[in-house]
Write a structure and sequence with these properties.
The complex is a heterotrimer of chains A (about 325), B (about 425) and C (about 300). Chain A is an all-alpha fold and about 325 residues long. Chain A contains 14 helices and two strands; from the N terminus they run H-H-H-H-H-H-E-H-H-H-H-E-H-H-H-H. In chain A, strands 1-2 form a two-stranded antiparallel sheet. With about 425 residues, chain B is an alpha/beta fold. A seven-stranded mixed β-sheet of chain B has the order 9-8-10-11-12-16-17, with helices on both faces. Chain B has a five-stranded parallel β-sheet with strand order 2-1-3-4-7, sandwiched between helices. Classes of the chains: A mainly alpha (about 325), B alpha/beta (about 425), C mainly alpha (about 300).
């Protein structure tokens, strides 16, 4: 059943550029980037039980890595941009995670928020290095060695870049699927549901949490690198704390208790925001109300509503 | 369809909020010209609604709405009523998406708006790619002081960031002779840094021995400058220069008055006119240099159009209009003029490329007087600065005398380096 | 020289006085309810706007400018009652949920309140004009100090003492402390949690709104002032330690004074210095200077 749904959804996404208006195809690009980000975030949130309010830091790392590579270092290959983002994301996440995972719950959330704001301030203050509020340009990357500089940007985005992003998302999804269904994933869930038992079983709680944090940071960085090229510019608001809040919002909206929930959340968030913004200027009020309703009445998100009668895959005890 | 429902909601919104009909009834009588379709011209508007610049964005939007109402009353553009489609300018990523929406979904003829440099830097290349005219109110595509898009086809950009700092430096030399030490407090972002650097360069051309003793760069949006003021008091400069333009101008003015800062030093607020009607006499002294950017609402030489606008703006919004209204009005009005000019030679509703061609070099009457687009798509206009006075019927300061300087005189021409040009141009002769 | 030092220090202490009120609201709510209220900055902004409205109504009705502080404080405290609505109408539904959900609910509040303020008061900076200056200045060790700044510092100190008294000398304070230490035990002893939570959250909200109202004569209200402030308030509680009143007091002083000194000595550092202190505290003393048992 769920495989059928997955197949149909994949099929629709594959043919979408041929059928849908260009604008909606363009909106799929941030969706796919955010889908990668929240897949990673949910390893920490849904599977490990840690809510980060600072993952925009890693989105920023990925986005700025792409910008620095294309504008300053003359590297235009998207593969290299993604790899470099992932590596840098992991490198910075390693010490940050080591400091953060000593805590859980609110303390963890606050620590991550603090680190996120340090990075944001760095981006803003070190004007000469980062471009300050103006940010940096991201030049059009080459895809698999193909220089596609000759075609109009919109055609580039709704064609090659679209399928490239899709491939990255599918790959990220497959890897994450393997991670959560591996013994490692099982350990994370045990730690989340019953840390005492996990410790008794000889699981090193801190080390597992650390690994989950670093993996989620790598996902956020890769997603961040994908966000840059469609805009053509990166700026510090990508690393601001409310952006961290938004990706947690997406995860919760779709449902953290389901593997695909966060991806659905990202999709609904982006398309709903697009519609609401077009109708009323006060979209934050509406989104705040939606978030409040989800938290109070549907904490398992949209997936939870859909799959209410079926045993949820990673439902909390 | 979705869009028609949305237009309905917009119309209701406009009627409910403003009480003025931007819609069609007023132009029902107008006749479309030969070769011109009768449906409305869709004009996209990007306006900041949230954050520090929300007030500026709102002023730009109000200026545009006033223009649309006026144009529609007079029969539209070539008989086509104007329909505004407003989207929010926020961060670069979201604004680029909203821009694409305007072009691809709403199929607007032109996009007006864009204030923040970060956003307009991102919008520039997108506008070039989408192939529709974009007339920026107040954003440039300069990175620092250097242009990143020297030869745009579709993008039309505002006055250079540093222009009002140049004017302010020239006037500093004129009004505050004998200044030896200067401190600067500017916002920590491109506009603030550009203004401060340029101000220093130009002022040095007039008084080579001037010393710049302190530079402060508080983050945009700071609401407490007590510590900054303490730091300025410690540095004891003869003059304080600031390019603040939002609510922080009001705040620093008030907090400076509380410790009598401007009793011991002169001050130049290059852009404080952005919030001019909040600079109350109670805390804003006379004798400061204050810049109003491209429109001074109380210009004694102002046109009938300006006087009508100020009157109606005050009646409707209970505020006096700041400069952004004029940037916005000019962008909209120049589009109308360009469409009419292109129609005259094409004989039918012009294509976007024809509109762009007609825009280059066009001159129209704007609220603040005649304004034009330079060949390389830069706004040309007059800037208004002057010395603050309490002698007026308002509860806030105005300026007298009013100094008017044209971008033709004191803005860097296309091409070339800013510093070389400054060295070659200043001090101005005559 | 002394005059400069006084100016710099008092500038820092003034900033600290405001930060303390907001951080104290954050701490009292966290101490009892274990909710980190991201919306504390939004309450601060709300207090600021309502404060201006109250003062304008007062002077508009012919009230004496010298008495503006009365409607200001009254408005600031009154709007604190919005805390009851938020607590009963939103938070009370999620007390049994994970802390993450409580955090997200306060994030939802941040989003909503920003637009509510914009809808109600518009986008232009909103201020009480020159009323700030009616109390004049005094000369302290050669430095010119606005009297109103001293009033705010005094009020903040007074509130700090008042909270101390409330927590240690009253029955309600004992209940608060008992609940913070051990909720189940307090409940078993017959404390009605609903009532305690409603009161505590309202107290926390009122501290924030009062802070906003008190600061507003010196500045101008802008709709995003709350989002900016939360980050500083956050630094205060991290440095001081979550849930601790003494922590809020010391943390606010550290942030206020270090910021002022940084601006005077090496302006490029400004807020970055505060974040560096935050990181140092997190690494060396993760529970803050006065933090209780974390986790």
């Amino acid at each position: 059943m769920s495989r059928l749904v997955l197949g149909v959804v994949t099929g629709v996404i594959l043919v979408l550029p041929l059928l849908a208006p260009a604008y909606h195809v363009l909106l799929m690009l941030p969706f796919m980037a955010y889908a990668v980000i929240v897949l990673g975030l949910n390893l920490l949130f849904g599977y490990t039980g840690l809510v980060s309010f600072g993952h925009a830091l890693f989105i920023g790392i990925g986005a700025y890595t792409g910008a620095v590579l294309t504008t300053h270092l003359g590297v235009r290959s998207l593969e290299l941009m993604l790899l470099a983002s992932a590596a840098l994301g992991a490198l910075i996440a390693a010490p940050v995670a080591a400091l953060c995972v000593r805590y859980v719950k609110i303390y963890f959330g606050m620590l991550t928020l603090a680190f996120g704001m340090v990075f944001y301030t760095f981006l803003l203050k070190f004007y000469r290095l980062t471009g300050g509020d103006e940010g940096m340009q991201v030049l059009r990357p080459t895809l698999l060695g193909q220089d596609l500089g000759g075609i109009p940007k919109t055609d580039y985005l709704v064609g090659p870049y679209y399928y490239y992003s899709l491939a990255v998302l599918v790959l990220a999804g497959l890897v994450m699927w393997r991670i959560v269904h591996s013994p490692f994933g099982l350990c994370l869930r045990t730690i989340r549901d019953n840390p005492t038992k996990a410790e008794a079983l000889g699981i090193s709680i801190v080390r597992y949490r650390w690994s989950a944090f670093v993996i989620s940071a790598v996902y956020a960085a890769v997603g961040g690198a994908l966000l840059g090229p469609p805009t053509g510019n990166v700026d510090p608001t990508l690393a601001y704390w409310t952006h961290s809040g938004n990706i947690v919002f997406m995860t919760l909206l779709g449902g953290f208790a389901n593997f695909f929930g966060p991806v659905l959340g990202a999709f609904v968030f982006i398309f709903l925001q697009d519609t609401v913004m077009a109708v009323v200027p006060y979209w934050r009020l509406i989104f705040g109300a939606i978030l409040a309703l989800v938290v109070i009445f549907a904490p398992t998100g949209l997936m939870g509503l859909v799959a209410r009668r079926r045993p949820a895959e990673v439902a909390r005890a | 369809m979705k869009s028609s429902r949305r237009e309905f909601l917009k119309a209701v919104g406009a009627a409910a909020v403003g009480g003025g009909a931007v819609g069609f009834p007023a132009v029902a009588r107008a006749q479309a010209r030969k070769g011109v379709p009768s449906e409305p011209v869709k004009v996209g508007v990007l306006a900041i609604r949230a954050g520090i610049a929300a007030a500026v964005g709102t002023a730009g939007l109000r200026g545009t709405e006033w223009w649309a109402e006026r144009v529609n009353k007079a029969g539209g553009i070539l008989g086509r009523p104007v329909q505004l489609i407003v989207e929010e300018e926020s961060n670069p990523k979201d604004t680029v998406e909203r821009y694409r929406r305007l072009i691809l979904q709403e199929k607007v003829e032109v996009v007006l708006g864009g204030i923040s440099t970060g956003v307009t830097l991102a919008l520039g290349p997108v506008a070039e790619d989408m192939g529709a005219p974009w007339l920026s109110w107040d954003g440039t595509t300069q990175k620092g002081v250097e242009e990143t898009m020297p030869n745009p086809k579709w993008a039309f950009k505002s006055v250079d960031n540093e222009f009002e700092a140049i004017v302010a430096a020239v006037l500093t030399a004129k009004y505050f002779k004998g200044i030896k030490t200067v401190a600067g407090i500017n916002n920590d972002y491109s506009y603030g840094h550009d203004c401060w650097e340029t101000y220093q360069h130009v002022l040095r051309r007039y008084t080579p021995d001037v010393k710049f003793v302190l530079e402060l760069f508080p983050k945009l949006g700071v609401t407490d400058f007590t510590s900054h003021i303490a730091s300025i008091q410690q540095a004891k400069p003869d003059l304080l220069m600031s390019s603040f333009w939002s609510g922080d101008t009001t705040i620093i003015m008030k907090q400076a008055a509380a410790v009598g800062l401007f009793k011991t030093m002169k001050a130049v607020f290059t852009t404080g006119g952005g919030v001019h009607d909040s600079l109350k006499k109670e805390f804003t002294p006379e004798g400061l240099l204050l810049g109003y950017n491209s429109m001074y609402f109380d210009d004694p030489k102002g046109s009938a159009l300006l006087k009508q606008f100020v009157r109606e703006y005050k009646a409707k919004h209970n505020e006096y209009p700041p400069y952004e209204c004029d940037h916005a009005y000019f962008c909209a009005e120049s589009f109308k003029a360009a469409a009419e000019k292109a129609y005259a030679s094409a004989g039918q509703w012009p294509t976007k490329a024809q509109v762009v061609k007609a825009l280059e070099g066009i001159e129209v009457e704007s609220l603040s007087g005649r304004r034009s687009w330079r060949g390389d798509h830069i706004q040309m206009c007059n800037f208004f600065q002057g010395v603050t006075t309490h002698k007026n019927p308002y509860d806030f300061v105005t300026i007298n005398p009013v100094e008017v300087m044209s971008t033709k005189v004191a803005m860097k021409p296309a091409g070339g380096k800013l510093l070389d040009w400054i060295n070659a141009t200043f001090p101005l002769k005559g | 020289m002394t005059a400069n030092l006084v100016n710099i220090l008092l500038g820092g202490i003034f900033h600290a006085a405001i930060l303390f009120l907001v951080a104290a609201g954050l701490q009292v709510v966290f101490g009892v309810q274990r909710i980190f209220n991201l919306a504390c900055g939004s309450f601060y902004a709300l207090g600021a706007y309502v404060g201006v409205t109250a003062v304008r109504a007062f002077t508009g009705a012919g009230g004496s400018p010298a008495l503006f502080i009365v409607p200001l404080v009254f408005g600031g405290l009154l709007v604190g009652l919005v805390g009851v609505v938020v607590e009963r109408g939103l938070l009370s539904f999620v007390y049994d949920s994970d802390e993450a959900f409580q955090l997200l609910l306060t994030f939802a509040l941040v989003l909503m309140l920003e637009d509510v303020i914009r809808l109600t008061w518009g986008t232009a900076p909103y201020s009480t004009a020159g009323l700030y200056l009616v109390y004049g200045q005094v000369t302290l060790l050669g430095a010119q100090v606005p009297v109103y700044n001293l009033i705010v510092i005094g009020a903040s100190l007074g509130i700090a003492v008042g909270i101390g008294w409330l927590l240690t000398r009253t029955a309600f304070g004992r209940i608060i402390r008992a609940t913070a230490d051990n909720r189940e035990m307090a409940e078993a002893l017959g404390v009605d949690m609903r009532w305690v939570y409603a009161k505590v959250f309202t107290l926390g909200t009122a501290l924030g709104t009062l802070g906003g109202a008190l600061v507003i004569p010196t500045t101008a209200a802008m709709s995003e002032m709350g989002i900016e402030l939360i980050v500083e308030a956050f630094a205060v509680v991290v440095i001081g330690g979550l849930g601790s009143m003494r922590g809020a007091f010391v943390g606010a002083l550290v942030v206020g004074v270090f910021r002022a000194v940084a601006i005077a000595v090496y302006p490029a550092l400004e807020m970055l210095l505060i974040y560096l202190i935050v990181i140092a505290v997190l690494v060396l003393r993760p529970r803050g200077l006065f933090g209780g048992a974390a986790v």
